[in-house]
């Protein structure tokens, strides 16, 4: 192959890929602005089979798509409202949050149970991301039996522990109500599924997300993350996450002071299938850099496959073999 032809082919591929790279936000050296909020000091439980009151929550990015109906908090995502989110109005600087939830189903759909440093947007007026702390439990429609637990410290994964954890259940998260929990103290973060601890991160490991103090639940369309969540099909909308109950136990001292309040379903059960023994749980550690590389490979592969045959044939095997 002539050198200039090979160079032209690589330039053509770079032209396709570079805008994606440049679109990634950078974090300015300032925190996200959030109005002062009252801290929660006493345990509270919301059983949506008994109440429709959402006055303690803020509806964001699609208030009409968030409502209590048929004894359930329903968060509905569609093509017009692609990221409806409900945010608890009070700060939880330390504590445990338990929810009974059935995730929204369908490839390309992500259901998220999170703690954020800010109530509102994590981007400024120019679209740049603020550095913020975040603790997540996420379920994507591409993997209905999988649950991902992760955290970010000031906008970046911890360099000392570059991984999230994938937990595999024996039940479908889109068909069953599952008990999820996040516990934040001054010294550790723990993630729970059906009352089993599936992931722990200690402050002593560095880059600790101590400021993730606002609890939220949302459903969003992973439009630019098909390799991670799958390709969404809006002909199957709406995509609805359903929450039976929410229980919040604050730790004013920054550490547990007693047994946390437990979220229950309408039958008084604390977990799917009547208990933590009702479903098999398998947890695996997946390096975050591996996830990012796999996502990048998927992006490159998609773009390469769009090229015409002659151009594609001029690319190095490192690209065509992804």
What is the percentage of strand-forming residues?
A: 25-35%
Q: Which architecture name does CATH use?
A: Sandwich
Helix-strand topology string: HEEEEEEEEEEEEEEHEEHHH
Q: How helix-rich are the residues, as a percent range?
A: 10-25%
Main sheet overview: 8 strands, antiparallel
Radius of gyration: 21 Å
Average pLDDT metric: 76
**Low-confidence blocks of residues:** 1-34, 265-278, 314-322
Give the terminus-to-terminus CA distance: 21 Å
Number of strands: 16
The CATH class, by name, is Mainly Beta
Q: Which topology does CATH recognise?
A: Jelly Rolls
Sum up the overall morphology in one term: globular
Class computed from helices, strands and strand pairing? alpha+beta
Compute the number of structural domains: 1
Describe the structure.
This protein has 322 residues and is α+β, with helices and mostly antiparallel strands. It has one domain: Sandwich (Jelly Rolls). It has five helices and 16 strands. The longest helix has 20 residues, at 3-22. Residues 251-280 are annotated as: Disordered.
